[in-house]
Amino acid sequence: MTLYTHADSNIRKTWIYLTGFLVFIILIAWVISYFLETYLILWIAVIYSFLISFFSYWYSDRIVLAMTGARLIEKKDNPELYRLVENLCITAGLPLPRIYIINENQANAFATGRNPKKGVIVVTQGLLRRLERNELEGVIAHEMAHLGNRDALLQTIIVILTGVVVIATDFFFRISFYSNRRNNRENRAAALMFFVALALAILAPLFANLIKLAISRKREFLADASGALLTRYPEGLARALEKISRDPNPMRIANNSTAHLFIASPFRGIQAQNWLTKLFMTHPPVEERIRALRGMKI
Q: What are phi and psi of 251, to 5 degrees?
């Protein structure tokens, strides 16, 4: 598989998942509307999720930078890193992002920003110390690809859709529960409505989150492929991922709310990777990413 076909494949799979997500929401909306004979719950869910995601989209980069203790640097602070980022920006046709450094021994990095003009790339001190230049270039190219692919915008859309599912099914279940208590217990329609609401309240948010995680994993594969296209050297990123995944140093600022941003999970320890646990991972297993990079043809 070439770099181009690998990238196209992951873009196509991302949109298949996203289309499936939209169909899934339409079906849920139809079921809720059928039983309640109103679209009120759906509209409430849409407006609430949109408002939450709107503020997250505009201010998430500031929040994340504050949570991680990242420090903004200028060219004089690290000229080599700055030149590397500038060269990749020229190649990718992207504006120069702000560059931050986290004072952590663990080798890791992430990108954030609502669009390429507001892009931010963050690396740890451990990453700068442990990686060779072509490996560091591979990591930066991966993060530049996230900015160029507007993954922050896509994630915001997915969060909105997931929020719609969770809020709508929760409201539907609560209304069905109280309605069932008020009505005669032998009322079959009320009983059916209650059990449908219960099933949706349990299963719909689970399926929504599984789709969200699947899209997240595909965007990581896409960023790997897009980054390799920038450097024309997939082996650099592959070796970098090997070093990052084998780094035993813990990350003090690691937490579940920001872990998905990093190029590899900041949590250390043995993690089971059977088919079930993979469904709940934000990132594909590093071994699969390395194998995909080394299987690409330039």
A: -110, 120
| Sheet hosting strand 98-102, strand order edge to edge | 71-72, 98-102, 120-124, 109-112
Give dist(CA 212, CA 219) in Å, integer.
11
Are the C-beta atoms of residues 213 and 279 closer than 8 Å to each other?
Answer: yes
Output the CA torsion sign for 178, 183, 186, 188. negative
pTM to 2 decimals? 0.80
| Helical packing angle, 79-92 and 133-148, nearest 10° | 50
Element (H, E) at 69: none
Active site residues: 143
Band (pLDDT 50/70/90 cuts) for residue 169 is confident
Six token digits for residue 152 = 């922050």
Q: Extract the tokens encoding 258.
A: 């920001």
pLDDT for the residue 3:
47
What is residue 256's DSSP assignment? T
Residue 259: name the closest of 67, 17, 57 by CA.
67
The tokens describing 29, both together, are: 């909306």
Tell me the one-letter amino acid at 143.
E
Residue 157 has pLDDT above 90, yes or no: no
Domain ranges of the chain: 3-294
Considering only residues 69 and 46, tell me which one the structure prediction assigns the higher pLDDT: 69
